[in-house]
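User: Run a structure prediction on this.
Assistant: Running it now.
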Amino acid sequence: MQKNSKPLAHGSCCHTDTKHNHSSISHELLCHFPYAVFAVALSLVFLTLFGYSRSNQYQDLHGLFHTLHFLHILFAATGTVLVFRKYGGSLIGALLVGVSVPAVFCTLSDAIMPYFGGILCGIPMHFHFCFRDHLSTILLFLGVGVLNGIVMSFHDDEGQKRYAATAHFLHIFISAFASTVYMISHGFYDWYDHMAFVFCFLLLAVLIPCTLADVVVPAFFGSISAKQSRQRGVRE
């Protein structure tokens, strides 16, 4: 029994140990799947409890979407930098990856995929691009998130594990909530009558970008950065 328990620990999710370089994308998708299911489900429950189940209240959701989107960028930048640094990435690389990865994948998860989800249902969606309309605000949240990730990377392993345990689900929940609110407030006003489609599509919209942004992409570039640093050290 003891021999079987160790491989399970080494196969844990979200790369809590830097020894997990061999973890596959499919493994990470499976690990993130339960988080995404609960997050999307809770976002739909909250919208229903708040009364946003009919089209006459959709205007109130624009402000909520921006709040969730900005916070998603904050958490995503922190997590991206933390994973990048755990895999041996440099500080300069952390700045580049910490800004570019959340900028791409948060937009994909929160806006682009929900937009096309409505289009697939024949809904005349309105596309809103926050990087164009709220660039200064987004850059501020990105900067704070990157700084937080760098600070966290200097904490001991226990401190980083505590952060991962408390913030990971919150990050995915905010992403799910932002995606849900975007879809509803930018054209999919009758979402309540298409709840099955909304749930399944948003599950993909959250699962794939968050898995790539949280683990796969920063781990990949962090490993490359660490390898380049070792090669420079050998040459010197």
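Residues 195-235 form the longest helix (41 residues).
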